[in-house]
Amino acid sequence: MSKTLIIGASGQIGKLITKTLIETQEDARALVRDKSKLDDLKDSELEIFEADLEKDFSRAFDGIDNVIFVAGSGASTGPDKTLLIDLWAAKKSVDYAQKANIKKFIMVSSIGADDPDAIESDIKPYLVAKHLADQYLMASGVPYIIVRPGPLTNDAGEGKITIKRPSSREEMAIPRADVAKSVVFLLSKEDLNDKIFELFSGTYDVDNVLV
Q1: Active site residues
Q2: What CDD domains does this protein's entry cite (predicted)?
Q3: pTM of the predicted structure, to 2 decimals
């Protein structure tokens, strides 16, 4: 059985992914800065690796086959943390993955990361960081899948998405639960490496559209 490292497992999407992997009895290692944030999962078989993404966390990759990078600096932090987490920690993760011969690296990015100049927004530094992290992964030689969800909501997920970008920004939102479900599905697919998917709420089942 392959083993998956979830980087940013205590975040909202990261925890949903981690819980799903536990429920499906997948072998997983959760990387978090503070393990107390996963106290609600402490009775499971989950392996928790405590590390600071601003330092060396290469040991977290020992014995790992797949990586999901879903770490983020958060909306309440400044450009410094965006640079250090969304870009630099992602870059280090790709370097560690390369050395560990990772079979699949799933990067949770963002809509707009393809062209940060195309969106007038106060989150442009975040989009630039995501753009550069995505580009670095694509050039690394590590087998990858990049997902770029639209604006995230906490609505209940229905497992219904589309990968066709809507015409209006209001239609681009997607529940975090549906992003998590999509990532877990992509993790299970062996024939979808080196692809980029934009994700939005839609009318298609995840396993029918992500092919």
Answers
A1: 126
A2: SDR_a5
A3: 0.95
